[in-house]
């Protein structure tokens, strides 16, 4: 599996983002290879830990119209996207979601 940490700053309030983020979360359910996303927030920084079945699935998502729309939104800035290999055996011990295969 492969992990991507995406963070960005938002000028919008969390209340204003609830509906569009809910729609985005529902759309994520259809992303090929996405195993799980954990949403995160610290002050004006938002983002998530994304777990994909493969690096290619992660790359496909990062190059998708969904992400293009997110990064083009003027309410968001300072995007950072970091890739990580997942240590599958250790992650399974600690209850990390596993790719269906």
How would you briefly describe this protein structure?
37% of the residues lie in helices and 36% in strands. The chain has helices spanning 14-28, 55-62, 65-72, 88-93; strands at 2-10, 34-42, 45-52, 76-85. A 4-stranded antiparallel β-sheet has the order 2-3-1-4.
Task: Please provide a written account of the structure.
With 101 residues, this protein is an alpha+beta fold. The chain has a single domain (2-87), classed as 2-Layer Sandwich (Alpha-Beta Plaits). The protein contains 4 helices and 4 strands. A hairpin with a 2-residue loop joins strand 2 (34-42) and strand 3 (45-52). The model has no long low-confidence stretch (mean pLDDT 94).
Question: What tags apply to this protein structure?
Answer:
single chain, 101 residues, alpha+beta, Alpha-Beta Plaits, 4 helices, 36% strand, globular
Shape: globular
End-to-end span in angstroms?
11 Å
User: What is the name of the CATH topology?
Assistant: Alpha-Beta Plaits
Low-confidence stretches: none
Strand order of the largest sheet: 2-3-1-4
**Could you say what the CATH architecture is?**
2-Layer Sandwich
Q: For the residues shown, what is the average pLDDT?
A: 94
The major beta sheet can be summarized as: 4 strands, antiparallel
CATH class: Alpha Beta
> What string, H for helix and E for strand, traces the elements in order?
EHEEHHEH
SS content category: alpha+beta
Question: What Rg do the Cα atoms give?
Answer: 14 Å
Number of strands: 4
Strand proportion: 35-45%
Give the number of domains.
Answer: 1
Number of helices: 4
Level of helix content?
A: 25-40%
């Amino acid at each position: 599996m492969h992990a991507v940490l995406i963070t960005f700053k938002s000028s919008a309030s969390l209340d204003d983002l609830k509906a569009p983020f809910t729609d985005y979360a529902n759309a994520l359910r259809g992303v090929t290879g996405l195993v799980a996303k954990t949403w995160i927030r610290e002050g004006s920084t938002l983002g998530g830990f994304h777990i994909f079945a493969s690096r290619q699935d992660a790359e496909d998502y990062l190059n998708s119209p969904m992400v293009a729309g997110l990064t083009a939104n003027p309410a968001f800035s300072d995007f950072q996207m970091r890739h990580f290999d997942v240590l599958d055996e250790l992650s399974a011990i600690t209850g990390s979601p596993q790719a269906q295969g």
